[in-house]
Amino acid sequence: MGDKVPAAPCWFCLSNVDVEKHLVVSVGDLCYAAMPKGPLVEDHVMVLTIGHIQSLVAASDEIRNEVEKFKNAFTLAADKVGARVFLKAGWYPLVRELTHAKVGDK
Q1: What is the pTM of this model?
Q2: Could you give the CA distance from residue 12 to residue 49 in angstroms, rounded to a whole number?
Q3: Is residue 5 domain-resident?
Q4: How many domains does the chain have?
């Protein structure tokens, strides 16, 4: 997977003793979903890889498939309550690939 250990402690590493576990929504085999400390919008959720990767483009098929499962699950949950999901993938230096999902009103 090409895991690289960041130079400084990573806010998002589940193995970090300071990780805010109360923000974790769900943990998969290779990825997990968490609420951000400072959400951009109400119901902001991040899907993050457990291992450090440069971007989703550099991710293995297994990681991309698991990210898709998370995205599909959030989309289905939003559909059930008549909400919409906005998905955005972005790369943040020294952090990892983050996929943002916003579940909000119609």
Answers
A1: 0.74
A2: 9
A3: no
A4: 1
